[in-house]
Amino acid sequence: MLNAQDPNCLFCKIVKGEIPSNKVYEDNFCYAFYDIDPQAPVHFLVIPKAHVTSCGEITKWNSDLVGHCFEAIAKVAHELGVTDFRVVANCGEQAGQSVPHLHFHVLAGRDMSWPPG
Ligand code: 5GP
Ligand code: ZN
Question: Residue 117 has what pLDDT?
Answer without folding.
Answer: 86
